[in-house]
Amino acid sequence: MAQRAVWLISHEPGTPLCGIVKFSRRYPTVEERAKVFNGASYVPVPEDGPFLKALLFELRLLDDDKDFLESRDSCSHINKTSIYGLPVGSEELWPVVAFLKNGMIYACVPLVEQTLSPRPPLISISGISQGFELLFGVQDFLSSGQKTDSELNTKLSQLSDLLLQTCPFGTLLDANLQNSLDSINFASVTHPQKQPAWKTGTYKGKPQVSISITEKVNSMQYDKQEIADTWQVVGVVTCKCDLEGSMPNVTISLSLPTNGSPLQDILVHPCVTSLDSAILTSSSIDAMDDSAFSGPYKFPLTPPLESFNLCYYTSQVPVPPILGFYQVKEEEAQLKITVNLKLHESVKNSFEFCEAHIPFYNRGPITHVEYKASFGQLEVFREKSLLVWIIGQKFPKSMEITLSGTIIFGAKNHEKQPFDQICIGGTAYLKLHFRILDYTLTGCYVDQHSVQVFASGKPKINTHRKLISSDYYIWNSKAPAPVTYGSLLL
Amino acid sequence: MGPLGREIWAQRLGAFRASPSAFMAGPEGEDLGRDLLSDLRSEKLSEPMKVALLALSLEYPTQLWPDAPAAEAAATSLLDTLVLLPPRPSALRRPLLLAATTALAAGGALSPASGASGRLLPLLLGLASGRDLGRSFGPASEQRPLQATAWECLRELESCRPGLLGGCLGLLRALLGREGPAQPLSLLLALALRNALVIQARAGTGLQGLLTAGDSSMEGGPWNWTLAEEGDVHLQPQAPSWPVAEEGECGLAVLELSPEEARELRATVAQLLDASYLLTPVAQAQLLWLLGWALRGLRGQPPVLFKPQLVRLLGTAQLTLLHAMLALKAAFGEALFTAQDEALLLRRLTLAAQHPALPLPTHLFYLHCLLNFPENWPLGPTGEEAAPLLLGSQLCRGLLPSLLHEPMALLARLHLLCLLCLEDEEKEEKGQDRSPRHYLEELLAGLRQRAALDGGPRALATLCFQASYLVAHCLAGQPVVLTPLTQGLAQLYRTRPALAPHFIDLLDRVGPELQEHLRVALRQEVVSRPGREEALRWHLQMLARVADGDAQSATLSFLQAAATHCTDWGLQQALLRVCRALLRAGVGGGLADLLQALARQLEDPDGQDHARLYYILLAHLAGPKLGVALGPSLAAPALASSLVAENQGFAAALMVQEAPAPIQLSVCPRRAEGPVPVLRLQVEVLEPVYSLELRFHVEGQLYAPLGAVHVPCLCPGRPPRPLLLPLQPRRPTPARLAVRALYSTPSGLTCHAHLPPLLVTFADLFLPFPQPPEGAQLDFFEELWDSCLLKGTESRLWCPLGPEGLEALVSRHLEPFVVVAQPPVSYLVAIRLPPDSRLLLRLEAAQADGVPVALRTDDWAVLPLAGDYLRGLSAAG
What we know:
The complex is a heterodimer.
Chain A: E1 3-11, E2 19-26, H1 28-38, H2 48-58, H3 70-73, E3 83-88, E4 91-101, E5 104-110, H4 126-143, H5 149-166, H6 177-185, E6 208-221, E7 230-242, E8 249-254, E9 263-268, H7 277-281, E10 297-301, E11 308-315, E12 322-331, E13 334-343, E14 353-359, E15 366-373, E16 377-381, E17 386-390, E18 400-409, E19 429-437, E20 452-454, E21 460-475, H8 485-488
Parallel strand pairs in A: 6-21
Antiparallel strand pairs in A: 1-2, 1-5, 3-4, 4-5, 6-7, 7-11, 8-10, 8-20, 9-11, 12-13, 13-18, 14-17, 14-19, 15-18, 16-17, 19-21
Helix pairs in contact in A: 4-5, 5-6
Chain B: H1 6-18, H2 20-25, H3 29-39, H4 47-59, H5 61-64, H6 68-84, H7 93-106, H8 115-128, H9 143-160, H10 169-177, H11 182-203, H12 226-230, H13 259-274, H14 281-296, H15 307-314, H16 319-332, H17 339-352, H18 360-371, H19 393-396, H20 407-427, H21 436-451, H22 458-474, H23 479-495, H24 500-509, H25 512-527, H26 533-546, H27 552-563, H28 569-585, H29 589-601, H30 605-620, H31 623-630, H32 642-654, E1 656-658, E2 663-667, E3 678-685, E4 689-698, E5 709-714, E6 723-726, E7 735-744, E8 750-760, E9 767-768, H33 777-788, E10 793-800, H34 805-813, E11 818-822, E12 826-833, E13 837-843, E14 850-857, H35 862-876
Parallel strand pairs in B: 1-8
Antiparallel strand pairs in B: 2-3, 3-6, 4-5, 4-7, 7-8, 9-12, 10-14, 11-12, 12-13, 13-14
Helix pairs in contact in B: 1-4, 4-7, 6-7, 6-8, 7-8, 7-9, 8-9, 9-11, 10-11, 11-14, 14-16, 17-18, 18-20, 20-22, 21-22, 21-23, 22-24, 23-25, 24-25, 24-26, 25-26, 26-28, 27-29, 28-30, 28-31, 29-30, 31-32
């Protein structure tokens, strides 16, 4: 369950090493155990320099991929998880848990409490999920609120102390590092009985509960006979419970209007104490029918101090909020495009913003555009080969808008214009970006009166809702487009 | 030496962290551990700097204090420093406890004999259990973090030395019921319990009241090491709650508990599980793993205790919790999870593997878990990835790959798709055109299209070939998949020949089902399209891998056409490598012409030499030998350089090996005729021998150097005609011939052997004079007889005769040389001895037991030889 070492490496393409070790921590007592457990198959954890080099090579993050290298490019060298074997000298260090997120590589080496030859299946190694959780925890800590480089550096400098708290000997005690930071700052809180380990202190002040529902809608629209359009809503419910007492009990209910779309695939926060089996079994895997559980979805819980994601869900709404088609025709040196977008009548026609991004990949810069838009304005980013159609806050009464235009491109310059591996030949897409406040596509809401709090004082309940687009693609219907298996099952 | 300054330490720490091994090998390395310990007590050094020093010791204790005595001394010094701290708040107490623990555990110094261990353990237990240790342990505000740290230190020591806290189980259990932090105590109790059960099971004893015993360590007595000593000095691999690991090797022998012990154990586990919601999710997962391990080997301990926790855990998105649940599933199977539970767990896992709210690494790990799902009743062989029985295609729909996925996700999902195709095939074709197989084909086509993109990143090409490999591997038995795959790959090559290295790699790795068809398709692709210049390099590289004996003429004409474009060294070498491959494949006639042409045509001398060499090899070596000569060297398979490998191949194959002789050589009775003496040699072989060359050397330069004798092939049981070895004596005298044999073995090696020497006798040199005309024989002899005396000599001797008489003796030994014969009493014999001597014998008036011989020779030196010869005749019979 323990980790032998942890690293944070910033990926810096263009520099000689392509990366810098920003943080590393070794656990010598765990290393001693690894020696005994692994026996003859034991491979010591290398120093930072060789580790950096081996990891970047394995993750294909070195700049040079010009030539075929068997140890990296061989067809049988297949990785299907974020767990790698790194060549170290003549041996291989395994398992190394590693992933890249926002320019930072998070890596650790879990202890395997048995011999490594033959390699045990990953599923049987408890340290793997613990390692992931540690890295996710570090990632959350670094990315929370962090905007500038100096903020990042401050957080990096705190990391050593934090790990001394949350992972003093390589066995993780709490993946929530922020928690430990708070407990360092408030060390003098006296401990009542049965204080949970995930709650470092108690709240003092006016009781209030904030619950916000954020739904993201993604879609793939093809406008083709043989391919079905797909769309899905992914929701997250975030809570912050400022309540007095060491273990206040709260029940939060999510409700749907009569025509609302059932919530599915619900994953809850570990602080939820029990779950209705209907919640547990409602799943997008099954074919939908009218008998689907449609709430209310009750979540009894003992909230932690900090803000947390109470639950995630998905939902299959009957229609996409905006239905569109996009056609691109190549005529000699120019492209002719036609875009049509239609907002569904059931959707709240009041956007914070709504834009259609129309990128042109694997071509030169835009040299000339002629267009006609029935609504909104068009911005042209010539060097980026990108058109942005700004639709604004509202669709017109007809709910339907169109854009047509002719575009001419200059000579292709590989360094400047964007490369895309999907948009080859006629394959092209436009992507919608929009946000609607105080609205959910499923209709899901929190009734203030349904929030039950078993604690002293009547808390103030705040609720928020919003709908955001995410990966909302409309593909050129005149060319092949990437499909998922689901789109083929008409 | 006084304490080092802050800057110096900062510098040293920086240098050490940059490369610990380099620093320790340097001049300052030796003193680092000692300086660090002494400066921790220095008043000049700030607290943060001391914390930094301790942090270093937490990470690198084995470098600072490399052996157990040093570690023991360091731990003692750290404990002394801790005790000497003034009773005000200090940031050093926690790291000092951690550092002392680390030094002892990592340095191998933890033992009953260690003084530091004897001080640290009661101190930790005292701090952890909240006993008042006096003012020296800092202000009250520090007690809680110190307590938590002490628990962690104890847990780490118990991890490194299982059984260490076996004697404290009763105390830990009692503490769990009281107030205080639940997490560290729960985890330590679970760990100590698991370890105690493992050790006791191995010893074949029960828990012996450990769970109910009071604690002796608390009363200030010496630490109870009994269980730790029983647990061996070393850790035992104890993972496997996983069924894949062979039963019986899991370190958990079956332990029988008394009813009372079983009740106590159950109560303890229930207590731990009931309080588990107080633990952080990662700690809950650890607890479940530990308790799963602990209970797995126990009879009569039904795992239903875990049931109440499961529903709560099933709902979460926490990776560690779902993973721990899978571990319980693996450990207890049907005893904990009914078929319905299993189905539900599988559904939750399936949905977690694709839930949009979870990050990619989590998806991938869940996919792995799905393909290694611990089923209640697995059908397939263990240890192989397979889709669980309950995971139908409906459940998998959302898990299938698409081009929009990240490479790793695509490959993982592709694997699942392949497994589905396999199942689909077993179920029989349903006639629907959107079967998984069609989807697979479209996906592969999309991958190839991306890989074909000129100037695209190599990762795209790699992904395409990885996917092709995976499909070929999983669906090897399905021609209906492999045929379009082969065609698609051939087309990809046509579009982007620069991917040749990937193709070659794929050919080297896939099974024969795809390999053979793909090779043929690629060869056709290359030879049917004379390359433009930039693609030529790839075509040649490809052809060197795919060319064989088939389609010779097309291949050769491609090469002929290519030769005119091979202007630089690299291309020429590539071309020659193809020739080499063809040579190995046994291509003959046309290739010889091509090689000759290349030897003339290529500008580069190296290329010319190679072409010539290949031509010579082709012309002179038989097929099997060529194969060996050009084949990869077995001598040094680790060397990747083709140049070295090629040379070594040649060296092994073309160098002559010393070997014991497989040949026996003997001299046959000779025929005295011709202008020079000729030895007739009989050869016998024990094994087939090819290209035999026999070399002879005359000792003492008595004869002119002898030419070698060549035999193309010798087989055992088929004696060849005798070999003829003409001799050119410089003096008419017998000699010894040293004989060496050079030959090829059937395996293609060239060998060299020394044979026993051959003896050339005096009689072997005898040649007759030309036959004089009929009637003139006597005159001819008399003339010779007379002429001999001019510079020669005459002698007489008695030649004994055997019972057969003179006639038999002459006919047997001297017949060819008799000039005048009057049987049975008189013979005149004339012998020519090369180079230009003669020996004349008159055997006249033979008697019963001998014959007087008058002999004349024109060479004095011959006389003794002739005497010996004549005297030996009767003995020779």
